[in-house]
Every structure is written in C-alpha cells, then in structure tokens.
Automatic annotation (TrEMBL), chains A, B:
Coiled-coil region list: 85-115
Protein name as annotated: Cu(I)-responsive transcriptional regulator
Keywords attached to this entry: Coiled coil, Cytoplasm, DNA-binding, Transcription, Transcription regulation
Record localization: Cytoplasm
Organism: Fluctibacter halophilus
InterPro entries: CueR, DNA-bd_dom_put_sf, MerR-type_HTH_dom, MerR_fam, Tscrpt_reg_MerR_DNA-bd
Name of the gene encoding the protein in the UniProt record: cueR
Record-annotated HTH merR-type domain positions: 1-73
Amino acid sequence: MTDWLTIGEAAEQTGLSAKQIRHYEARGLVRDAHRSDAGYRLYDCHQVQQLTLIRQARYLGFSLREIDALLQLWADPTRASKDVKALAERHRQAIRQRITELQQLEKTLSALEADCRGDDDPDCAILASLTDPEHRT
Amino acid sequence: MTDWLTIGEAAEQTGLSAKQIRHYEARGLVRDAHRSDAGYRLYDCHQVQQLTLIRQARYLGFSLREIDALLQLWADPTRASKDVKALAERHRQAIRQRITELQQLEKTLSALEADCRGDDDPDCAILASLTDPEHRT
DNA sequence: CCTTGACCTTACCCTTGTGGTAACCTTTAT
DNA sequence: ATAAAGGTTACCACAAGGGTAAGGTCAAGG
C-alpha cells in the first residue's frame, strides 16, 4: 500500500525536473530507483525527501559534489551536526568570496563607465582601456 | 619588416593561453590568423590589441557573446561611445543582480547555520530544513 | 649532419548541470 | 481500439576552456 510515485510525480513534488532526477541517479548521487514491471522508475517518500534535499541544496548553490557529501551525512545516523555545519560554512565562505570578486568587478566597470562620455562620438574610454594592457591582471 | 608574433608570443603578451586564442578563432570572435609557410598562426600588433581587448573584457566577466559585440563596435569607426557604454552598463547590472542573489543565498545559509548547534549530535537544523519542502522556491 | 628540446598543428575527450530531441514503449481514458 | 500523456534510453548542445596525443617545425649545439 506504499504509494510509489513515478518520476514525473516525484519531479512535481520536489520541484526538480524528471531529467534532473535521472541525472542525479546516473551521477550516483542517489541510488538507482525501484522499477515497475514496465521499467518505470518508482519513488517512495524517503527518496522524495532525499530529492527534496538535493533540490533545496541546489537552490542554495551547493554543487552536486557538495550535495553528495550532504547526502552521506544525511544518511548516516551517527553523523555529527558540526560536520554538516562545516560544509555549509565552507559553502558560505565561497559565496562571500564570490560576492567580493563581483563587487570588485562592478567597481572597476563603474569607473570605466564614468570615464566614457557615452555620446555619439566614436571616442570611448572603455574601449581605450580594454585595449590597453596596463595593469596586467 | 612587420614583426609577426607566433601564437605563444601573442599569448604571453596578452595574458591569454594559446588554447584560448585558437578557441576564439574557432568561435569566429577573431578572424582567422595569417599563417606561416609551415602553417603557424602569425599575429600583428592590431590583432594583439584585439586579443588584449578580449582578455581584459573576459577579466571583467563579459561573455564571449558580449565581447563579440564589443569587438564589432571596436572595429567600427562610426560607432557611438554610448553604445559601448550601454553594453558595459548592461553587464554591470547583471553583476549587481548576481551580487544581490548571492547575498540572499548567504543570508539564508547564515540563518540555517545559526539554527544548527554544530556539535557531535546527529540532530541538525540544516538537514532538517533542507529536507523540508517548506517554502517551495 | 643530426639530434634535442621547445614550439606549433589538429583532433579528440573531460568538465558542470542542465535542456532538447528522437525513437520507442506503457498507461490511462475515452 | 485509439489517442494523449507520460515513461524509457541515447545522443547532441551550451560556456569556456583544460588536458593529452600524435605529429610537423624551428633553432642551437656536438
């Protein structure tokens, strides 16, 4: 009487696409799903929960590799929550790092734009700067 | 007497890799390079300047598609600098948008982490939240 | 003259995380 | 019975390159 879901139903419940679910299985992120007689994948609520975790973690920007680690911890009843927290913290630091980089880019772009008159004249400080190997980054 | 550079020399001057330069040619971003009798690609200073533009623009996070547009403008003596500025501005807005998204992610992660005790106990608020399809994003 | 090493050439596979398509089979409803 | 909707695999594509192989070329030195 367990209610099995087809991949489409599981997709709808989790917010993933069926394609994504198959992909995660192919990547070994989740175990191969059960199959109906006709070969249809069937999911129980435990697997739906697992897929939900993937979906939410993807939304938060975790890579599939990181999610793999999260799933290992999730499946391990002897885990320490500090290990989960450490994973999250590392990811958060990566995000902060990326934000800093993007802010620097934005600053540089902003300065370039300020130097460009932005009129109908071909003379353009942005192009001039881009073609100048000034501070070789 | 024009001093032609081989691809390695052009790479060194621009900060690109030889691989990247070939890639840009294959993508049609730059015209096919001249060739020596032996088939070696040869670059003049105009092309080196063009490659420098690509390198700098890539550094600023422009996509190759955007750079294609920049190169069109660069090559066009009748360009209006406002068109260049508009390209830069659009890119800058995309960066700002991305920063906002990442900041939101960071905030969410931060909140999750705050709820996790991070000790040796398996009970973990982060995992609990991830497996909960609460606010289906 | 010939070798050695550094450089060049093409061509192919790998990455990340999907989307798209085709060709085909199953289930469900009419 | 038939058609729509949904499942299956397998393959191609993207961005923007990196890695490697198998081979051609160039300059220096013994």
